[in-house]
Write a structure and sequence with these properties.
Elements lengths: L4 E7 L5 H9 L2 E7 L6 E6 H8 L8 E7 L6 E13 L6 E8 L6 E10 L3 H4 L3 E3 L4 E6 L8 E4 L8 E3 L10 E2 L6 E6 L4 H13 L21
Parallel strand pairs: 1-4, 2-6, 7-10
Antiparallel strand pairs: 1-3, 2-3, 4-5, 5-6, 7-9, 8-13, 9-12, 11-13
Length: 226
């Protein structure tokens, strides 16, 4: 089960570039909370607090419990959200802005999760080459059921075999969402030296040489100066 991170945020009334610059000078980061069924909330929070979350293994699907403090009030509102985007300064690499997407804990959502291949493919022992054209798969599940990754056993793959997304064993925690039965992993034959030379020759033949146009006057090279 996914663990919730915590972040204290403050509702801000001021918007615009000037307000954002003032926040950053104070060591804070402007942000926004949005999502289905709620009004956009403009936030600010300490840059050091976000850094702690991002340096402890947080990923795109990490759930964050926002403790929202309202101005001139002791009220603390709690909402669970995903950190959808963080903008960084191109040179200083400091945080410029953050987007949070609110989620309902009792409603399923769709997310992309990494695919982790486990085992040693049988075909690689015979010289085959393991390929993994897709490294993520889209799933639908409750927020707290989002897995860190999905393991796929490739031990039985021989040379010429492929494993597709619909071959991934089902789970009671999530369902895989895929419009096509795409390839997750395959073992291809090794490329011989002759085949490699054939590929190189074919690629070289693709180079297009521009023909000289008839009647086109060439520019005379300037004489070298002594």
């Amino acid at each position: 089960m996914m663990e919730l991170k915590e972040l204290e945020v403050f509702i801000r009334a001021e918007k615009g570039k000037g307000a954002a610059h003032r926040l950053r000078r104070e060591g804070k980061v402007p942000g926004i909370l949005y999502g289905p069924g709620i009004e956009n909330s403009y936030l600010s929070f300490r840059a050091t607090d976000l850094k702690k979350i991002l340096t402890t293994g947080a990923r795109e699907n990490t759930l964050i419990e926002l403790k929202i403090r309202h101005p001139q009030s002791e009220k603390v509102e709690k909402k669970v959200a995903m950190l959808k985007e963080v903008q960084l300064h191109p040179v200083q690499r400091t945080y410029l802005h953050a987007d949070f997407y609110a989620v309902a804990m009792d409603r399923k959502i769709e997310v992309e999760v990494p695919i982790r291949l486990v085992g040693k493919a049988e075909g690689t022992k015979a010289g085959g080459i393991l390929e993994q054209p897709r490294r993520e798969v889209r799933i639908r599940c409750l927020p707290l059921a989002i897995p860190d990754f999905i393991e796929v056993d490739i031990s039985n793959l021989k040379i010429g075999d492929s494993l597709h997304v619909l071959d991934i064993p089902p789970s009671p925690q999530y369902e895989i969402v895929a419009e096509t039965n795409f390839t997750v992993a395959s073992v291809v034959p090794p490329i011989s030296e002759a085949k490699y030379e054939e590929i190189v020759t074919a690629e070289a033949a693709k180079e297009v040489v521009q023909p000289e146009r008839i009647g086109e006057k060439k520019e005379e090279p300037e004489p070298e100066k002594e």
